[in-house]
């Protein structure tokens, strides 16, 4: 019974983030930006980041996608706000490992609400949906000029270049 209530709570958090996403929109002072697409289900995400004084000062996303991709983007923007790019990159790696189920002892506390997406590991077809925003964050923060190369995700690992 308790597990069922917890599952319902997690579902509700995902639905809330999808219906009223945090940091949805555009930035006027973006220093890093990218657009990525998930060809599997048609999700499209534009991510804009303002890095100021060595920290993520503001972040916004827009685009269309399924409930999981929109909720994950909302949760990701909440979790990385105020973090350094290096901290955000570490979070990308933790999230990727979490959703593919690589490490059952993985500390996911840094992911905040996004940690509830661990259940995506049970649904391989949804892994790309959940990692779209995180992959966009990785590409936008690691490109030399701050403008990631737009493209499509081709697998679920957040560090791939495709």
UniProtKB/TrEMBL annotation:
GO terms for biological process: iron-sulfur cluster assembly. InterPro entries: NIF_FeS_clus_asmbl_NifU_N. Residues 10-129 form the NIF system FeS cluster assembly NifU N-terminal domain. GO terms for molecular function: iron ion binding; iron-sulfur cluster binding. SUPFAM superfamilies: SufE/NifU. It comes from the Bacteria. Belongs to the NifU family. This is NifU family protein. The lineage of its organism: Bacteria, Bacillati, Bacillota, Bacilli, Lactobacillales.
């Amino acid at each position: 019974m308790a597990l069922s209530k917890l599952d319902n709570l997690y579902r509700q958090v995902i639905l809330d983030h999808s219906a009223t996403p945090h940091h949805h929109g555009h930035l006027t002072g973006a220093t890093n930006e990218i657009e990525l697409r998930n060809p599997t289900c048609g999700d499209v995400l534009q991510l804009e980041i303002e890095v100021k004084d060595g920290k993520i000062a503001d972040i916004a996303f827009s685009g269309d996608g399924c409930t999981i991709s929109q909720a994950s983007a909302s949760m990701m923007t909440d979790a990385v706000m105020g973090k350094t790019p290096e901290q955000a990159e570490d979070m990308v790696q933790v999230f990727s490992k979490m959703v593919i189920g690589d490490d059952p002892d993985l500390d996911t506390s840094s992911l905040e609400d996004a940690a509830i997406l661990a259940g995506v590991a049970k649904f391989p077809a949804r892994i790309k949906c959940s990692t779209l925003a995180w992959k966009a964050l990785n590409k936008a923060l690691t490109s030399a000029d701050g403008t990631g190369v737009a493209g499509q995700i081709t697998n679920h690992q957040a560090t791939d270049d495709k």
